[in-house]
User: Fold this.
Amino acid sequence: MNDLFEYLLRLGDDRLILGHRLSEWCGHGPVLEEDIALTNIALDLIGQANLFLGLAGEVEGAGRDADALAFLRTDVEFRNLQLTEIPCGDFGFTVARQFLFDAYSWHLLGALTSSQHDGLAGLAARSRKEVTYHLRHSSEWVLRLGDGTEESHRRVQDAFDAAWRYTGELFLPDAVDTNLLAQGIGADLPALKPIWDEMVTDVLGRATLDVPDVTPTAMNSRSGSHTEHLGHLLSEMQFLARSNPGAKW
Assistant:
């Protein structure tokens, strides 16, 4: 398989699946302002997914556009991180998961702005501007919940403890990452981990939270290994497109 196509799928799928998860908060946010904020972030992520998957379709050259890649693949063909597909749970888990992903995405996209592939570099630079806002938003909520009431502190700490096991694959490179890094196209994932650790540790410390004493598990989602949750998510997300193949608005 074309390594660049595979890499772009990963970037697009992460954002598509997490965007769909966040969209589940629409109409259910804790306050109206946050309801709107989460919905806007979901729209940003889905917009980024559209761009990355669109470029993936061009690179593949098989006639599949972003819609076909989003709605006409099975769960084992998706390349998103397992962290992004876990159900939202309570607001504390949503915040914790979002912050961990935002910190990862911000550093990754920053590295990809220097990619030798002009299309990828351009999309990374464009997306990172939005992720800068996402990161500020999620980190502020970590601080607010962690250093808030006894109840909010306990619940967001529990959320980080639950989400932490899924961070093991964030910076675990495989052959695709290694090949594209050698070509000056991809990012050096192991080199990003220390600065991600530093950012996460700093925010958790200021929020009076502990870095989870949990050993992250090395998942294999980049090769199509997912939790049972992704299949349920896709059955909902893809229902209309699969029920009306070729339909146009």
About this structure: The chain has one domain: 3-209+225-243. The chain has a mean pLDDT of 95.
